[in-house]
Amino acid sequence: MHRLRTCAARLRPLTACQMAQSPSQPRPAQAPLRTFPQPTRHYTAPVAAEPFLNGTSSNYVEEMYYSWLENPKSVHKSWDIFFRNANAGAPPGAAYQSPLPLGGDLRGPGLGQAVVGSQPSVEKLVEDHLAVQTLIRAYQIRGHHVAQLDPLGIMDADLDSCVPTDIITSSDKLGFYGLDEADLDKVFRLPTTTFIGGNESALPLREIIRRLEMAYCQHIGVEFMFINDIDQCQWIRQKFEKPGVMQFTLEEKRTLLARMVRSTRFEEFLQRKWSSEKRFGLEGCESLIPALKTIIDKSSENGVENVIMGMPHRGRLNVLANVIRKELEQIFCQFDSKLEAADEGSGDVKYHLGMYHRRINRVTDRNITLSLVANPSHLEAVDPVVQGKTKAEQFYCGDADGKRVMSILLHGDAAFAGQGIVYETFHLSDLPSYTTHGTVHVVVNNQIGFTTDPRMARSSPYPTDVARVVNAPIFHVNADDPEAVVYVCNVAAEWRATFHKDVVVDLVCYRRNGHNEMDEPMFTQPLMYKQIRKQKGVLQKYAEKLIAEGVVTRQEYEEEISKYDKICEEAYARSKDEKILHIKHWLDSPWPGFFTLDGQPKSMSCPSTGLNEEELENIGRVASSVPEEDFTIHGGLSRILKGRAAMIQSRMVDWALGEYMAFGSLLKEGIHVRLSGQDVERGTFSHRHHVLHDQNVDKRTCIPMNHLSSNQAPYTVCNSSLSEYGVLGFELGFAMASPNALVLWEAQFGDFHNMAQCIIDQFICPGQAKWVRQNGIVLLLPHGMEGMGPEHSSARPERFLQMCNDDPDVFPLIIFTPKSLLRHPEAKSSFDEMLPGTHFQRMIPDDGSTCKNPGAVKRLIFCTGKVYYELVKERRSRGMEDTVAISRIEQLSPFPFDLVKAETDKFPQAEIAWCQEEHKNQGYYDYVKPRLRTTTDQARPIWYVGRDPAAAPATGNKKAHLVELQRLLDTAFKLDAFKGHS
C-alpha cells in the first residue's frame, strides 16, 4: 500500500461502513499501556526548507487538503499537483512536483503526464505529518475498541477480540502509516483537532501515542466521532484528551469512598437480614450510586431543581435508599411477610415501586426534587413515561430550555439493545413537542441478559449503539474504577447542561449473583461466574487504593462502615413498628389537594358541562375563521370553515365542532389541553383542522384555538412520530404531572393501540391499584365496522371492558370515536343540548313515538356507537317506529344500572336485545349481558343481535361486509326471529 495514498484517503471523513472494513488483528486481553523499544538512531523533524512549506504547520496542510477536496483551485498549484498525484496512486517520494513555468502542463499522474521534480525530503515531511494526524484520528474513532472496560478481564465490551489495524499496539504496526521505529522520537506538530498536547504544540511521536492511549484506551472508551457537529466533537476531545483532566481532590475522593460504602453495605445488610428474598441487588455495579449522585450534583450545580428518573428493578432499592433518600425503615418493612395491605390497592412488589422526595442537595446546598417513576417488569416501558412527565414539569414551570427540570433513564444492557421502545423514545428526543432538552442515559451493563450471552442477544458491537441514531455521545467506562465512573458522569451532566442533548454512560460491570438472589448462574455461564467468584469487590479495591495513597486511614474507612451499618440497624428496628403497607408512601407523582377539599373527600360527581350561548358562538366563530392577517389557506379548507360558520348560524354542531367547543371552553377556563398522536393536527379523516398552513409561506401555521381570549390556557396540538407505544407512554407521563389538564392521545385508527398495549395493560388500567397513581390520560380510538378491513375497524372494546373494575368512582377513560359519523347528517347536536344545566348523558333513551304507547313496544334494543344510526334508518324503512325502541348506552363502564333499569321498566312487554356490529366474541356483548340480566327481570331473556364469532375483527371484502350488516339488521327487526332461541 502506498504510504501517501493511505494518508490522503484517511483524511477523508470515514463512514461507519468504511470504518468496519478496516483490517484488524486479534486483540490482546486487557493489554497494559504499550511502550516501544528505544530506536537505535535518533531523529529530529526535518526543517521545511522549500519556499512553499516555510512556516507551514500540519494544521495548515490539513486545512489545505480539505479545501482542495472542495475546490482544487483554492490551493497553490504545487499543492494541487501533490494532492492529485497522491490520490492517483503515486509511489512514496513521487507525489511532489516543483511548480512549472507559466503555461506549463500541471496535469498529474493518470492525466497523461509523468511525475517530475520530486523532492523526497519535503514530501516525507508532509506525508509523516499527515500520517500522524491520521493516527490521532484513528484513536479518536476506534480507541474505545481496545479500552480496558471489562472488570473481569474476560469479555470484550464490543464483542470483538480484534484490534483495529490502525491502533498502534507494537512498533511493527507503525508501517501501516508509513512510519517506523526511527520516527518514534521525531517531533510532530499537533493538529487543532486534538488536545493531547496541553500547552504544547508539538510532541515526539512516542509521547503522542502514549497520550492517545491514556485518553482513549484505559478504563474509559469514548464514542463520539460519528457526531456531525465539530464544536461538540471538540468539546468532548477537550474533556478527555487534555493531560491531567481526571484529577480529584482529597475531599472528593473521601466523598466517593463514603458513597461506595453506602452502596455496598446496603446490599450486604439486605443479604444478611433476608438471604432468601429476591431484591435484585446491585452487587457488581456498586459504583452506580456515586454515578447517579454525581450526575445529580453536577446538574444541581448547573441550576436543575427537579430530576425525574426511570429504571428497571436491578439496584432500585439501593437507588431509593441512597439517591432518592427514601426512609430505610419504609424499605425494610417491605420484606416483612406479615405486613398487611392497606385499602389503597393491590400494591406491587417492592422493586417496582416509585418515590417522590424533595430535599436539600448537600453538595450544592440547593433544594432538589427527585422522583423515581414506578414501573413494571417490562424493563424499558417506563422510558417514554419519564420523558412525558419531564416535559410536563418543564411546561408547567415555564422551563422552555430544560434548565430546571431534567430526566435520567437507567437501562440494562440486554434491554437497551433488544427493546424497540428504546429506539422510539430516542426519536422523540429532538421533536419540538416532545423534547426534554437532553436525557442522561445510564446503562448498567451486566454483560449478560438473565441467562443470555450478549453474543446471542444483540447484533450491534455495543448495547448502546441505538443511541448513535440521535448523535448522542457514548461514554463506556469500567465500573470497577469509581474515579473513572465519576469523571464520566460529570462530563455527561456537563454535556447535557451545555448542549441540551442526550448522552449515554455505559457502566461495564458484572452481576455478582444470578438474575436474582435465588438464581443459579453457573448453569449457563460457568466460566464467567468462576471469575466472578474470585473477583475482589470494588469497594475493597478502592479503599485499598486510597489507603495506599494516604487519602484515608484504615481506621477511618472502618469507622465509615460502622457508621452506616448502625444507621441500617436502627432503621431495621424502627421497621418492626410498621404493621400496614401504605402504598401512598410510594407515590411518585402526587396531586396535592386534588382528592380532598377542606379535609373532606372531594365529590366525584360530574358537574354540568354546559356553556351559555354567547360562549358557544364565540368559540364557533374562532373555529370557522383564520385569526391571523394575510394568511392564505387551502380552497378546500375555506369551504370547511364556511360550513362550520353555517352550522353555528343554525345552532348545530357536528363531532368536529363539538370537540372544538369542548377544548375551547376548557382553555378559556385556564385548563391546558394537549392533543397528541399521528396526524392529529388535521385529523386522520380530515375533519379537525386545528392547525392551518399558509399556502404561500413555508412553516407558517396558525392555531385558531390559541386565539380565543387574552387570558386563556395554551392549546398544544402536535403530530407525533409514527409511534404508538412510545407516544402513548409519553402522553401518560405528561398527564401524570397535573390533574388540571386534559391530555389526549388519538390513534390514527383504533386498532393501532395494539402497538401500545403494554402501556395500557401495565400503566393505565392497573396503575391506580398497583401504585396509587392518578392519571387523567384520555384515549381517542376511532372505531366502527365500515368495510375497511380487519385493521381499520375495531378498537377492541372488549379488551378495555375486561380490564375495568366497575368502580362507580372511576370516570370513563377510553372514548371510541367515530369515523363515518364525523359527517353523518343525523350525528349532530343542537346548542340546546349544550347550554348551562346540561350534563353528559350516560344513556340516551328512546324519545320517539315509542314513548306515546310504551305497552305496545315489542322489542327494546340496547346498543352503542355507530350501529344506532343504521338501526334507526332500518326501523324507519320498515315502518316500525311504534313497536321497536332503540336506546343508546353511552357510558359502558361504570355501567349505568339505574338508567337501564328505568328504560326496561318503561317497556314491560318488550323483548330485550343487545345489538352490536362487532362479532359475538368481541365488542361489548360479554360485558353487557350479565349486567343487563342483573338490571332486568330475570324472566326476560337478553337476546344477542350481531355478527357470529370470528377470529379476525372484520372481513376484508366489502360485499361480505354489507351481507353481514344486512343479516344483522334483519335479525334486529324480525320480531319472531328469537322464537325458539335462548
UniProtKB/TrEMBL annotation:
Gene: OGDH
Any single Gene Ontology cellular-component annotation: mitochondrion
Keywords tagged on the record: Calcium, Glycolysis, Isopeptide bond, Magnesium, Metal-binding, Mitochondrion, Nucleus, Oxidoreductase, Thiamine pyrophosphate, Transit peptide, Ubl conjugation
The protein's name in its UniProt record: 2-oxoglutarate dehydrogenase complex component E1
InterPro entries noted in UniProt: 2-oxogl_dehyd_N, 2oxoglutarate_DH_E1, DH_E1, KGD_C_sf, ODO-1/KGD_C, THDP-binding, Transketolase-like_Pyr-bd
Cofactors (names): thiamine diphosphate; Mg(2+)
Family assignment from sequence similarity: Belongs to the alpha-ketoglutarate dehydrogenase family.
Highest taxon in the source lineage: Eukaryota
Subcellular location as annotated: Mitochondrion; Nucleus
Catalytic class of the enzyme: oxidoreductase
SMART domains: Transket_pyr
Organism per entry: Scleropages formosus
Swiss-Prot/TrEMBL GO biological process terms: glycolytic process; tricarboxylic acid cycle
UniProt catalytic activity: N(6)-[(R)-lipoyl]-L-lysyl-[protein] + 2-oxoglutarate + H(+) = N(6)-[(R)-S(8)-succinyldihydrolipoyl]-L-lysyl-[protein] + CO2
Domain spans labelled Transketolase-like pyrimidine-binding: 653-824
EC numbers: 1.2.4.2
Annotated GO MF terms: metal ion binding; oxoglutarate dehydrogenase (succinyl-transferring) activity; thiamine pyrophosphate binding
